[in-house]
Amino acid sequence: xxxxxxxxxxxxxxxxxxxxxxxxxxxxxxxxxxxxxxxxxxxxxxxxxxxxxxxxxxxxxxxxxxxxxxxxxxxxxxxxxxxxxxxxxxxxxxxxxxxxxxxxxxxxxxxxxxxxxxxxxxxxxxxxxxxxxxxxxxxxxxxxxxxxxxxxxxxxxxxxxxxxxxxxxxxxxxxxxxxxxxxxxxxxxxxxxxxxxxxxxxxxxxxxxxxxxxxxxxxxxxxxxxxxxxxxxxxxxxxxxxxxxxxxxxxxxxxxxxxxxxxxxxxxxxxxxxxxxxxxxxxxxxxxxxxxxxxxxxxxxxxxxxxxxxxxxxxxxxxxxxxxxxxxxxxxxxxxxxxxxxxxxxxxxxxxxxxxxxxxxxxxxxxxxxxxxxxxxxxxxxxxxxxxxxxxxxxxxxxxxxxxxxxxxxxxxxxxxxxxxxxxxxxxxxxxxxxxxxxxxxxxxxxxxxxxxxxxxxxxxxxxxxxxxxxxxxxxxxxxxxxxxxxxxx
Length: 490
Fold this sequence. Notes:
Organism: Gomphillus americanus
Strand content: 15-25%
GO biological process, one term: L-arginine biosynthetic process
Cofactor: pyridoxal 5'-phosphate
Mean pLDDT: 89
Shape: globular
CATH class of the largest domain: Alpha Beta
Main location: mitochondrion
Oligomer: single chain
Keywords: Amino-acid biosynthesis, Aminotransferase, Pyridoxal phosphate, Transferase
Strand order of the largest sheet: 4-12-11-10-7-5-6
């Protein structure tokens, strides 16, 4: 019965997802066994609290709590994690160890753009892993060149960087940004052998990664302070401040890195005028312009790259990408112009795992899917659907909900207070949302999310806000019976 129910729901997925009942049923029938909860495991210490909610956070005596208590002592504590233990997903839904399904408005922080456990992705992953996973960059392989070629051709054909020429493949977003910063430094040395042209410019509110180069470009004391001092040669300016650029970007500048939409910083979009001024100024001083599209690229903003919707005069010299490029498989990439690429010599940079046959095969599949114009059109329409709901929430909670920002399916909703009570209330009703910047709810669902799932999720969010805004200490509301029939986790 559980499989029949899941098969019915699978038929509501986007037509971009190939689906056959036999394949789908086989996948779940052969799922890896995981610990599951019994009725006694999920009994909450507060029965009234549990009765009022469909997804109460696991109690201290639950299977989930016992699982985490056994494993947390072995983790270096770098994240404050929510109590549920996630064990599997499909499409826009994810299941926890207590056999409960959540609607996922986060997509692993803008990663699972094709949804969880995409059947074709799963098939190709197993096929390539069984053929050749890794052989090092001392040799050619069948897929890294194909992925590089596809990234360049799709970038150009989508209206993106018109002089895209070559690609460097890495394992993650921060590594892609590290490579981009190194490439900018190398270009600076080629253009000025004295070494004076070495400064990197970035902007307030940015997030470019946690390795030391990318961290030095991340103009946020919260991330930098524990690891100060930063690498010398980095300057930070105010985001969207055109008037400051002449003084900020000088003949000493070798590179400027900017997110066209700052995701982690609160979903703030760079104005077209600001990007134009950046492009003009970097050209004037001979600096490399880097667009960090790790979060906003790959179709998320409603075009293959966010800058695909901009005129060629605003195009960068380097694009960095990761996240959706692998749909959950670790991969990153730098797409560079010939002017940048020609400055990089053999031995200047490298990677052990970047461009492996397995990572490249999965990246190739994702680029093929995420470069589809029909997907981009659907993303734009779904973004408008979200924004219509944001407007209604603003009317309903006028003293608590502010403006909405972003494009496509990278959206932010400004709250007037700490969003954590809303995040918690939503999770305990079966909806996953995350935060960004200052008091901002961030929405980055799978791009294949259906209209019906958006309606369902926004209804839950409204109920969560009603509970959270009514009383910060009473975020649990009175929702009963939302728990849907779900397949058992095996």
